[in-house]
Amino acid sequence: MSSYLLAALHVVLATAVSSHIVLTKSDVRSAIGWTGLVWLTPVIGSLLYLFLGINLIRRTAGRMRHARTGFTAERRALRRDALAGVSLVAPVWRPLATLTAQVSAEPLTEGNRIELLEDGDQAYPAMLAAIESAGTSIAFATYIFDRGKVAASFVEALGRAVTRGVTVRVLIDGVGARYSRPSMVAELRRRGITVAEFLPSRLIFVNRYFNLRNHRKILVIDGHLGFTGGMNVRDACVLADRPRAATRDVHFRVEGPVVAQMMDAFAFDWRFATDEELAGTAWFPDLVPRGDVLSRGIADGPDETNDSLLLVLQGALSEARHRVWIVTPYFLPEPPLLDALRVAALRGVDIRILVPRRGNLPVVTWAMQKQFGRVLEGGCKVGLTPAPFDHSKLMVVDDHWSLIGSANWDPRSLRLNFEYVVESWSTPFAAQLTELITRKAAEAEWITARELAQRSLAVRLRDGAAWLAQPYL
Predict the structure, then answer these.
(1) Bridge partners of 402?
(2) Out of 37, 121, 167, 280, which residue is the most buried by the measure of CB atoms under 10 Å away?
(3) What is the β-pairing status of strands 381-385 and 445-447?
């Protein structure tokens, strides 16, 4: 009798879940994958879908909309005028500027200064010095706040800021907060630092593959000095200390009007996580020009901003005429983006992609190797960078347009996580990034389609099996 009850339960659950998949999923491959898992893995497949397959942000769309109303009237006015800034760029770039204005709803801002910071050796001292200089407010969002020497330095600096009367808000992703145990959240609270978790996990077992994470890295000091990029708070990023799992990365010190857009993104996330509205001159002071870089912030996530980053990447590839440099730790583009790369290469654009030779997630590395064949056959070039693992995320198009921030070239960043990137229209700034990428490229091993095809059958099967798991990675 128990077997009949279990079979009946499976049919009821699978039918209900399949109905939800058909009604809510927009990607047919994802729908087919989840439907197959639900029916072929009784009960377990349905439970996995409940935990991993449903967009929890849509469940809480009311809260998201409520948080969005907390934006100031000035911010909303800037959004309405986003297209007005298209005329600031050269005519050849205006189609891309029009696209990014439409999907980001943020205006292009003049007068920005962006400074490249390599690894934690440069980034952490600059960030800590900025925290020590804070006089009114500190907004700090990170995916991972890992225990160690670096985390201790940040806790001390943030604690001193609180003591001298600075208003401090720290937002840590609910999964990223648990990369080390015990979590740093309690330590921050013990020092009197106001901290919140973004979508905290209620499960005892937490792994790095859970979706809908806040992967953004934003630090804003007194509303006028910002830091963003791909760097978490981890000892592994300080290469001078020769850490066991050393990680290369880049971060950026930002000044100018675009910092208000960074603060906007933080304020929205903070309102969603805590219901507290951050407004006023302490968070949004008047900003004056600090440089000559034309920039725009682009927030992306599985809510109202869904697919913003994907559309920007496709648009940039379609407008490229000469060269595209891409640096990413995870390269798992879905078919539309993969085709955009191949089409650009077939048009004669020099597409070069740099990824780590050995990643920090073996299954993802194997799946990536399966993807390399398609882009190589299309005429793209793929370089494998040596250790230490390179976590940098960079894109430069035609030595003028660039994209920096937290997003990877994988479904997790492009569809499932909350990311933040900054686009810039500046030949001098693009030249700085190109110089860094050129150094990385000089160390890379450039692979060919023939070399991939000559690998053993066992290796190719392993990579193919990992690639099949891409919808679940």
Answers:
(1) 396, 424
(2) 37
(3) antiparallel
